[in-house]
Amino acid sequence: MKKKSDLQLTPDSFSRASNLRDLMAKARLHAEAEQQVIASLPDSLVNGSRFVSCKDGELVIATDTATKASQIRFRQHEVMESVREYELFRFVWKLKVKVQPTRSNERPARKMTPLSNENARLLREEAGHTKDKQLREVLEKLASHVRD
Description:
Helix content: 40-55%
Largest sheet: 3 strands, mixed
Shape: elongated
Structural class: alpha+beta
CATH architecture of the largest domain: 2-Layer Sandwich
Distance between the termini: 77 Å
Number of domains: 2
């Protein structure tokens, strides 16, 4: 059986899991590693940062903003020194920081602005000059959506 320090945490290692037990063990190891890495970051940079991988001495961390990424890069020596205290990361020699903005699935609610009296008057006037019956009806209907 491999020691914890011998396991490499990369996205490829998850695809090679032979069964569910191996996959769960790797997931637990990844979660433990993430806790250790996040604990070594300064408190102001913890929110929005996460551990991605550690392979061949290269530690990869992702943040949600470029500002946090710059601050982590600026403090990389103290972060790596803090991370090396853990058995799993004792051979880390390089820190790579990536920016991965959070996904936002929420769209702002569409705000319908009411039609002003002046615009309604202009629409009615244009409807009066139009020869096409369907277009005239549409313009008149639009003109009726006037704010009170």
